[in-house]
Design a protein that fits this description.
The complex is a heterodimer of chains A (210) and B (204).
Chain A (H helix, E strand, L loop, with lengths): L4 H8 L15 H6 L4 H25 L8 H23 L1 H7 L1 H4 L5 H9 L6 H31 L1 E2 L2 E2 L3 H5 L11 H18 L9
Antiparallel strand pairs in A: 1-2
Helix pairs in contact in A: 1-8, 3-4, 3-5, 3-7, 3-8, 4-5, 8-10
Chain B lengths: L1 H12 L10 H6 L4 H30 L20 H23 L1 H7 L2 H4 L4 H13 L4 H29 L11 H15 L8
Chain lengths: 210, 204
Amino acid sequence: MALSTKTKAALLGPLNKNNPVIVQVLGICSALAVTSKLEPSLVMAVAVTLVLAAANVIISLLRKTIPNRIRIIVQLVVVAALVTIVSEVLKAFAYDVNKQLSVFVGLIVTNCILMGRLEAFALGNGPWPSFLDGIGNGLGYGWILVAVGFFRELLGSGELLGYKVIPQFLYDAGYENNGLMMLAPMALILVAVIIWVHRARNKDLQEETN
Amino acid sequence: MDAISLIVRSIFVDNMIFAYFLGMCSFLAVSRNVKTALGLGIAVTFVLVITVPVNFLLENHVLKAGALSWLGEEFATVDLSVFSLLIFIAIIASIVQLVEMIIERFSPSLYASLGIFLPLIAVNCAILGGSLFMQQREFANIGMATAYGFGSGIGWLLAIVGLAAIREKLEYSHVPKPLKGLGITFIVTALMAIGFMSFSGINI
């Protein structure tokens, strides 16, 4: 099946021009808090993508029956149910990662990406485009997380996924791990650098005011 | 005394924004001027002060393992903590809807300036985070839980007002074009967070 232009836009837009984290400013909290290592970043990216796609489809199927006044509660209950499932699965099959993610698995419920996409997209579109939108935004969120996690683990502890990648002779020559990278504020700086590079390449995204 | 020390700790040491990065979305988006930031900060504090104690009661009398024993012997082994996420978020969402209606009724100008972010308080990670940390820390009584909610709220308020004040001044500085707006805000927040790390040693 060839991808139509619309499908492509829904899937690939969020990876670049319409990225949820660095352009729409959604889902920052978890992007910063779980990225001190690569592995939790990966797990978090997958978990959010799955929950987002499923929630988008469910809300889009229900969109004509939800009364406007209480839509937020309905959305939250759907998302919370999905996240509870994900968190139980993680506890069963990836206990260590679940421990590292601590409250942040539960906080997927309040990840603004979910509410933002449900409000902005799923409430006005059919299930199939909503599904694609969910996958696209999940991936867009995921690559930022993985990028930040990659650099923090590489520079902070010289490892990737727990394996040593900085060769020993560099340490012998005086190279040292940058402990500052493991601290939370550096995640902010890394995201700022990503934004910097991204906006230098996409001039139309630059803002006029501070 | 314990309560005061808990409040001070949750304002400065365990600051919601600088230590845990909770509630960043609205933190970044509504910090363009001090007045709106103050309004949102007060709303968040208010919601936290109500939701944390309510969820504390639910946690200890309904959800926790053995919490239902007041219903009778046969309920003593029931453990409903799987549902804590669902219950917490439902309580939070309904309280936020209530606050939204009250503000809409009494202060239309604040309502207009908060815009989309008022309903989004329900999904402000700081609010659910407050309840989840409350669950994790197992406070002794409802007073401590309220104090924790209050302290975290004030800490959040302090952070957003501080950032808004800095951003107002940033208007007049020369920032590299691609960093304007979002980028420089991230960097300022990071610097503020590093500053707040110096509080981590205090003990009262």
